[in-house]
Amino acid sequence: MSNYNLHQWTQKSPYLANWIQQNPPTARCTSQSQPITPNPIFPLTATLPMCPPLELSQTSPSVILVTISTPAETVFTLPTKALEIKTTRKSLKITQCRFYNFLSSVLGIPHDNPKLFLGGFVRKDIQYSEAVRQTANTVEGTIRDFVVNIPISCVVDLGQTLVIPPTLFGLQNGDKLISSDLTEVNIVRQQFLDLLPHCELIFTQISEMDDTLDRVPLQGGPLEEGVFRTIQEKMIILIQLRLTFPNHS
To answer: Residue 113: its pLDDT value, please?
Structure first.
């Protein structure tokens, strides 16, 4: 039997100067690609629909009744397949009721009308039946609940017949130089702030029409029974508001 001697090959590390060994290696800056998202500050649209008032009534110098009708449409999807809608409860929530007065008229240019910016949503609570088992003649189901908020927004033109207190718009009246000494400058700033009118919801009426968009027959169920999830809803919302302006006297 012959013995085989294994040959081991070694190599010395390359020569490095002392100043290189004392300095740590510089970390490389790796660029991380980040997805570009649209600026959430800018809205998708800058225009709002107008709501022509059905009636404007000034009951006193500081109280105005505004009655409008605004349409709304939405498409939403139920969490599970529904056999039929049992009950719905609707309530209107006003989240914005902002009065904007017209600017001072310019010679030769007709002035604009005062506006009322409205925003909010219709809270809709839907109770529907979900089929769990069926035969050729019967369907057994359970009741489920689903809440959806349908947003609304519009601008009401208040016309030119109402007597509305003037608005100063909170603009600065100007700067006054109190001291004539150039080494000391004292500035007094004046700003008139107007109290916003109080907005109160007096009456609401919601008329709706619902259409199912994906209704299919219930497999193994009775004749003409079907299930769906997607609903298209059209609403007409009648709103009456009371605007109460603060007394400036």
So the answer is: 86
Burial class (CB in 10 A: 0-12, 13-18, 19+), 199: middle
- Cα within 13 Å of Cα(205), Cβ side: 6
Domain boundaries, the chain: 44-244
Taking the C-alpha atoms of residue 102 and residue 98, their distance in angstroms, rounded to an integer, is 13
For 22-26, 179-183, 224-228, which range has the lowest pLDDT when averaged over its residues?
179-183
Nearest to residue 79, comparing CAs of 170, 163, 9, 147? 147
Neighbours of 242 (CB within 10 A): 17
CA distances 40 to 36, 100, 151, 168, 224, Å, are 12, 25, 18, 31, 46
The answer to which of 29-33, 121-125, 178-182, 239-243 has the lowest mean pLDDT is 178-182
What whole-number distance in Å separates Cα of residue 75 and Cα of residue 7? 80
Q: Which residues, 6 or more positions from 156, have their beta carbon under 8 angstroms from its beta carbon? A: 50, 51, 53, 66, 68, 115, 116, 117, 118
- Do the bridges between strand 226-244 and strand 198-212 make them parallel or antiparallel, or are there none, so unpaired? antiparallel
What pLDDT shows up at residue 239?
Answer: 94
Q: Residue 40's pLDDT band (boundaries 50, 70, 90)?
A: very low
Cβ-based burial of 231 (10 A; exposed 0-12, middle 13-18, buried ≥19): buried
Q: Which tokens go with 96?
A: 């914005």
- Mean of pLDDT values over 155-165: 82
21: which 2 tokens?
């060994």
